[in-house]
Amino acid sequence: MQNSERYAGDVEPRAAYENLSHASQAVLVDVRTQAEWNFVGVPDLRAFDGEPLFVEWQSFPPAPPVNGFIGQLAKKMSEKGLDQTASIYFLCRSGVRSLAAANAMAQAGYVNCFNIAGGFEGPLNPEGHRGVQSGWKASGLPWIQS
């Protein structure tokens, strides 16, 4: 794999939020499952009239990557007026699926694909709870739940 085909790197949740709030050519892509969006919550970007794109990387129960992920995301980005040079910040529960999605889009020619370190909830703490050690929630960033 050539360097140009690799994702652009990991970013901390606060840095991603800050970049999203100031860049018109940037988007947050949540690659978790429909169940996670509904029951765990989603990033809230309304403070700057932002809205995440939701495209599952894997369906539930965990399976291979969703067939057509790249095409689905490319279509949604195009509908928002974003091209292959837009900054794309990928998010999942802990940062594993989002890393795979960032790499896949980089290999498809998208040049600014970032993985949000720690994901939405981060790893389990010693008591077996997520969302308190690292990630979007633990960083105190806005989120909503249906």
From TrEMBL:
Name the source's superkingdom. Bacteria
Domain Rhodanese residue range list: 22-145
Q: Name one Pfam family in it.
A: Rhodanese
Name the UniProt key words of this record, in alphabetical order. Answer: Transferase
Q: Which InterPro entries match?
A: Rhodanese-like_dom (IPR001763), Rhodanese-like_dom_sf (IPR036873), STR4-like (IPR044240)
Task: Extract one GO molecular function annotation from the record.
Answer: transferase activity
Q: Specify the protein name.
A: Thiosulfate sulfurtransferase
